[in-house]
Amino acid sequence: MTDTTFDLTGKIALVTGGSRGMGRAMAHAFAAKGADVIIASRKLEACESTAREIEEEHSVRALPVACNVSHWDQCDALVERAYAEFGRVDVLVNNAGLSPLYPSLDQVGEALWDKVLAVNLKGPFRLTALIGTRMAEADGGSVINISSIAAIRPAPIELPYAAAKTGLNTLTEGFARAFGPKVRVNAIQAGPFLTDISHAWDLDAFAERARTSIALGRGGEPDEVVGAALYFASAASSFCTGAILRLDGGVH
């Protein structure tokens, strides 16, 4: 008997920040379960490369779209392109994010603050408002917000980012109430994952800290987001909405 628990055959999944890291891993996973995917990120060339990989490996359609989610006009254009090409979106993953370094809190400039809030909070609000409304008016769907442990464990080195992710958690529950019963809205609250951004870390120092500050003693690999993403994207989570799942290896 074929297990169809996480089947996404015939579904359309849109992943922001989908050309690398956890976004790329989720896009591949959705495609492996039968979904056509829309890969959105700032750099079209990176989107095109990931789209080619997915089409060759999984024999589904993958549409690359350049989009900076910090700009509402680009969010609007992304939604219009998705619906023009596919007629609907069944799964939206708000994964695009950034957390720039700064030397001290008093040197956090207005431009940095605005940029962090725009990418991590403003963009997800706009995309969820637009796509969630269409989902609710049609056959429903699933929205997955990629949050962060910083939302509940804010560190001085990432306070603007932490504030944005706390806001994203709030949006998760609010949109779940706004768009139920047809649309499910949930969040994956990620801990430290060893994606491209980790190349800038002192990995030896991180590994030393992880042994005592993370129950599993390490950072996550990008593919380790896949199980949670498939759960929220598919009918496996049919009675789950407004939830925030910690996926952090047991940060304490």
UniProtKB/TrEMBL annotation:
Q: What is this protein called?
A: Glucose 1-dehydrogenase
Supply the alphabetized keyword list.
Oxidoreductase
**Source species, please?**
Saccharopolyspora elongata
Q: PROSITE patterns attached here?
A: ADH_SHORT
A family per Pfam: adh_short_C2
Q: Which GO terms describe its molecular function?
A: glucose 1-dehydrogenase [NAD(P)+] activity
EC assignment: the record states 1.1.1.47
Q: Where is the Ketoreductase domain?
A: 11-197
Family to which this protein belongs: Belongs to the short-chain dehydrogenases/reductases (SDR) family.
The record's listing under PANTHER family reads: 3-OXOACYL-[ACYL-CARRIER-PROTEIN] REDUCTASE, SHORT-CHAIN DEHYDROGENASES/REDUCTASES FAMILY MEMBER
NCBIfam families for this protein: PRK07231.1
Q: Which InterPro entries match?
A: KR_dom (IPR057326), NAD(P)-bd_dom_sf (IPR036291), Sc_DH/Rdtase_CS (IPR020904), SDR_fam (IPR002347)
The answer on whether this UniProt entry bears the keyword Hydrolase reads: no
